[in-house]
Amino acid sequence: MEQARREAEERPVSLPERLAALRQQLQAQAVWLLNDSGVVVAEAGDMPEISKDQTLSSALMAIFSAGLKISYALASEKPDNLFAFAGPKQHLCLMHVGTGHALLLGSAEPLSPERLSALRQAMPGMLQDLEKIMEQL
Predict the structure, then answer these.
(1) Which of 18, 38, 99, 136 is the most buried (most CB within 10 A)?
(2) Which residues have CB under 8 Å from 4's CB, separation 6+?
């Protein structure tokens, strides 16, 4: 039993597994990893009203690009941005994963200041984990 637990801990976590864990940890309805063109690289959960909306995807990628440009203008080596959007039924958070990917969180629950603060505090470790996993792909 102990050996099985150690092997599970040593086994690298896959991208889908990490996104599923993030979804649960962040209490999100869905989590998407997008490339810089807005293409879904991996996902966990489902929010069809969000994932099928091309207009929304284009707007999110414009924000992603603008955030990257602003980070560079501020002399940031790595973007450290969190964008939050509230709607009547769905709420979204967008953040950079390095310079070439974005993490999008979708939730039916409102993004309270406390929830955004917790997300902001979790971002560095969570995004670093995702970058490591993507380097291995």
Answers:
(1) 18
(2) none
pTM for this structure? 0.86
What is 1-68 written as a DSSP string? -HHHHHHHHHSPPPHHHHHHHHHHHTT-SEEEEEETTS-EEEEEE--HHHHT-HHHHHHHHHHHHHHH
Tokens linked to 107:
């939730």
Instruction: State the Cα torsion 1-11-23-94 to the nearest 10°.
Output: 160
**pLDDT per position as a tens digit, 23-53:** 999 889 999 999 988 899 999 999 888 877 8
